[in-house]
Amino acid sequence: MSEEQSSSKKTKTQAEADKAEKEKNVKGSDVKEEKKSDKEEKTDKKDDKKHTEKKDNKGLDLDESKDDVVTLISQEKKNFRVSRKAAIQSQLVRTALEDDKDAKEVSLVHIAAPIVEKVIQYMNYHIDNEPRKIESPLKSTIMRELVDQFDAKFVDDIDLDTLMKLLLAANYMDVKTLTQLICAKIASMMKGKTADQIRKTFNIRGEFTPEELEEIRKDFKELLVE
């Protein structure tokens, strides 16, 4: 073999070796990029999971924590400590806490301390006890036949003046199930009675005008229909 042929063969062999090395480097680079991409994808998924958990935990802080405490402040500036989960049965309180994540106190400037205490008593019980749905029209005037024992006793054991103040408080605080319970109690006291009997039951002086009677029946229409 001539020197020229030998040199040509060597050059060709070197070129093939260089090409193979280049392909190897490209392939290695692709593998590295693929591994890097996989690693980045795993990191992204991990970050997404952390973000989701963090978001979920925010919801837990508001809706599910029994240990977190909120202070409700009555008209007389008396403080009542209550679990957040109980307190947010009041839409008024829930909205206040959602608007200010750092809030620990909610002022109830229109509600006297004894009434705030009664509302809290109701909300504490219903943390783990869903209120029984009140059917309408009422099938009975006996509350224990309409709701559970606690709720029946809750409205049966208070005087009329307290019942009315409690209705105003439940409406102001927007505790819907408590409002419904008290309305059912009032309706049970009116059911089947004449205007005179209703006036006597609720200590109302003077005669009802036709407009007032119509207004009463309209307010409790669903509960009073026979």
Note down, in words, how this protein is organized.
Helices cover 64% and strands 6% of the residues. It is mainly α and 226 residues long. It has three domains: 1-62; 65-111, 2-Layer Sandwich (Potassium Channel Kv1.1, Chain A), CATH 3.30.710; 129-224, Potassium Channel Kv1.1, Chain A, CATH 3.30.710. It has a three-stranded mixed sheet. Helix 4 crosses helix 6 (160-173) and helix 6 packs antiparallel against helix 7. The model is unreliable at 53-60 (pLDDT under 50).
Task: Please describe the structure with a list of short key phrases separated by commas or semicolons.
226 residues, mainly alpha, Potassium Channel Kv1.1, Chain A, 3 domains, 10 helices, 3 strands
Helix content: 55-70%
Query: What share of the residues does DSSP label as strand, in percent?
Result: 5-15%
- Which overall shape is indicated by the principal axes computed on the Cα atoms? elongated
Kindly report the oligomeric state of this protein.
Answer: single chain
Spatial order of strands in the largest sheet:
2-1-3
CATH class of the largest domain: Alpha Beta
State the CATH architecture of the largest domain: 2-Layer Sandwich
Instruction: Give the class from helix and strand content and strand pairing.
Output: mainly alpha
Catalogue the unreliable spans: 53-60
Number of strands: 3
Total separate domains: 3
Please count the helical segments.
10
* CATH fold description of the largest domain: Potassium Channel Kv1.1, Chain A
CA-CA gap between termini: 120 Å
N-to-C SSE string, H for helix and E for strand:
HEEHHEHHHHHHH
Q: Averaging pLDDT over every residue, what do you get? A: 78
Radius of gyration: 36 Å
- Biggest sheet, in brief? 3 strands, mixed
